[in-house]
């Protein structure tokens, strides 16, 4: 048989073709735009069949499904509001109906409803907590139940993997965004406590904490030269992140390459959490 590769690690053509997430199914919530879109695409490129959850943008979700299919992958779109237990249940039932089960669950759905503290309505507080924190609770709970129901399978060493989409604001306070920062601070301890609880069953729970990623959620922060210049002062690496940066991190966290990584938040932020204000001060 002909071999490719060099040195001591020779790779057969068959091995070379096996993708990192082959024979696994991934569910990504909030995948019709932004970071979720990038993550779903990256997981599909790595060989996973992908369930593309969306809340209101069916067209964008279907567009992603057809991109994945055109590239030779498998995907389908499912509508669900992750803050509603019945809809989350239906979403997992759809995963089972189409792909038998799910191996990788990315609890990504999130939103911002920003305002000065004294003006923040109870509704804006509750909506952000409902999607960003309760949504992750409901999604992860359904995931754990599904992993247990289906039992181990050969495609991964873990029984299942959950990736919580957090933010640098799980540690960086954010004036004018107390609802959002509170939700992400909540995600931090939610993720760690859950990781501790289910690790003995070989369920790996981790978070990704993105910094400023170029997506619709923060368009105001990067779409003019003045805004961009101001934003870059907060990023030691001096570039705005792209959803591909988060996609690559998600692929690694979802794969057996990170099999010993449990209960960790992976910051993908160009150094935003390094207190850049201190680079010439203090
Ligand atoms: C927020 C973005 C913000 C970034 C860095 C993210 O979690 O959703 O709006 O640009 O954090 O501050």
TrEMBL record:
Record EC number: 1.1.1.391
The signal peptide stretch is none
Which GO molecular function, any one, fits this protein according to its record?
A: oxidoreductase activity
Q: Which residues form the Ketoreductase domain?
A: 24-216
Keyword set for this entry?
A: Oxidoreductase
Q: What domain of life does the UniProt record list for this protein's source?
A: Bacteria
> So what family is this one in?
Belongs to the short-chain dehydrogenases/reductases (SDR) family.
What name has this protein been given in UniProt? 3-beta-hydroxycholanate 3-dehydrogenase (NAD(+)) 1
What GO biological process, any one, is recorded here?
A: monocarboxylic acid metabolic process
